[in-house]
Amino acid sequence: MEQTLAIIKPDAFSQRLAGKIIDLILEAGLRIAAVKVVHLTRRQAEGFYHVHAGKFFFGGLVDFMTEGPVMVMVLESDNAITRWRELMGVTDPAKADAGTIRRRFGSSVERNAAHGSDHPETAAFEIHYFFNDLEIVRANP
Ligand code: CMP
């Protein structure tokens, strides 16, 4: 059993796409183990994306991620990281496969509708950035 962090980004959340994206998540066999809606401060967004600090797109990324509320979720299944990344599609919506979330709902590399952890260690950091253990439902044995 694996967990990953998913974010419905400000572009998708403000367009009221959260329900559609949650349907796709559940249809793909992922379970939602935790969920909250937050409007990130710049400092919180910078901390979350600290691995990208100094990159040319960092300022724009922080501007975008703080422009409105996001929905943050812990998703759980076998291979949850890969499953959620396949459902999202690649970073650039124009290059993402037909039917993926970023292809359907994203509009640019920056405004790409959704985020997912890329590795188990990243997932552990990202999940605990937003949730403590009491806020995450335990998997059924
Ligand atoms: P995300 O999966 O949230 O992780 C880092 C984000 O940086 C990525 O999605 C993109 O939305 C954003 N980003 C903006 N510009 C670029 C770029 N040129 N290359 C990669 N990521 C970018």
Write the layout of secondary structure elements.
Blueprint: E1 2-8, H1 10-14, H2 18-27, E2 31-38, H3 42-48, H4 58-65, E3 70-77, H5 80-88, H6 101-105, E4 114-116, H7 120-130
Antiparallel strand pairs: 1-3, 1-4, 2-3
Residues 52, 57, 61, 91, 109-110, 112, 115 line the site of adenosine-3',5'-cyclic-monophosphate (CMP).
Structural overview:
The protein is of the alpha+beta class and 141 residues long. 39% of the residues lie in helices and 18% in strands. The protein has a 4-stranded antiparallel sheet with strand order 2-3-1-4. The mean pLDDT is 97. Bound molecules: adenosine-3',5'-cyclic-monophosphate.
The best one-word shape is: globular
Characterize the biggest β-sheet: 4 strands, antiparallel
- Secondary-structure class: alpha+beta
What strand line-up does the widest sheet have? Answer: 2-3-1-4
In terms of DSSP E residues, the strand content is 15-25%
Number of strands: 4
Give the proportion of residues in helices. Answer: 25-40%
The poorly predicted ranges are none
The overall pLDDT average reads 97
Output the radius of gyration. 14 Å
Summarize the model shown.
The chain is of the alpha+beta class and 141 residues long. The protein has helices at residues 10-14, 18-27, 42-48, 58-65, 80-88, 101-105, 120-130; strands at residues 2-8, 31-38, 70-77, 114-116.
